Amino acid sequence: MTASRALQLSLATAAATTAAVGVWVLRNFDPNVPGLFPPCVFHALTGYWCVGCGITRALHALVHGDLARAFSMNPLATALLMLAPLLAAWKLGWQPRWLRPGVALLAEPRLWLVLLPAYWIARNLPWWPFTLLAPG
């Protein structure tokens, strides 16, 4: 086994172990209850939701099979997480023609430079339908 292949295998094993531990923690501990999980520092200091607010609670809902609750906690992160298997398959060599435009779009930095600030602002607007973007 080459050193490069051994490194890849080690990183994959570490990632799988970390993911398994994360799923176990989220399965056994509720981030909605104060204690183990720290609150969002940005929200605590400003009272506004950041782009990542609700991700831990969304992952908790997902490991319990509650997709609607996960989506209500952080719609953007939940939607992007659903794309992860397709992007992982793309990275591993499965590259169908129909997926190319989506991968190219997601690889475009300008998308993220517009999407993330727009989402951050939109989820803090105090009227419907933007209130649906706030966690919970």
Describe the fold and architecture.
This protein has 136 residues and is mostly helical. It has one domain (9-133). 63% of the residues lie in helices and 0% in strands. It is built from seven helices and no strands. The protein has helices spanning 3-28, 41-46, 55-63, 67-73, 75-91, 100-106, 109-122. Helix 3 (55-63) runs antiparallel to helix 4 (67-73) and helix 4 (67-73) packs across helix 5 (75-91). The longest helix is centred in the N-terminal third of the chain and has 26 residues, at 3-28.
Main traits of this protein?
136 residues; mainly alpha; globular
| Shape call | globular
Quick one: biggest sheet?
A: none
Strand content: under 5%
Number of domains: 1
The average pLDDT value, as a whole number, equals 91
Uncertain stretches of 5 or more adjacent residues:
none
Give a short synopsis of this structure.
The protein is an all-alpha fold and 136 residues long.
Topology:
Blueprint: H1 3-28, H2 41-46, H3 55-63, H4 67-73, H5 75-91, H6 100-106, H7 109-122
